[in-house]
Amino acid sequence: MPEIIPLGWFHTAMGIIALISGGFTLARFREISLQTRSGQIYLAATLITAGTALAIFQHGEFGPGHALAVMTLLALFVGTVAATTKLFGKFSRYMQAISYSATLLFHCIPAITDGLMRLPVGDPVLTSIEDPILKMCYLVLLVIFLVGVGLQLRWIHRQSA
Question: Is 70 exceeded by the pLDDT of residue 58?
């Protein structure tokens, strides 16, 4: 793995803030929303993290991290449109929950990847992006996301009933 540049350290710090505030927000409020301070912190940190990811070109070209950043920005946009307008009608709150939760998934993918490929320093758990352990981690993240979103949507539905 290449050394982390100063922008990369800032990006990582913002990503950690986003992960902590996003996890806290979901645990406390069951959904990420612009209506809570922790939700606002999460969304701002996510926006900054995705924006800085687009400026990091350690490998010299557009890569998977950049694609995740673009997907994150799109999910933030859709979630914010759903939260601030009635474009999606009665499904706006559901769309907000799915979109904002997707951003958390998009944070976790590079966090797991970088964590396993950089730590412990000098003897990382994984040495290849193709390692089956990493693919299993991605599958576990996807299952957690799907179960979590399912629970959120059920909770939102019960709230509106």
Answer: no
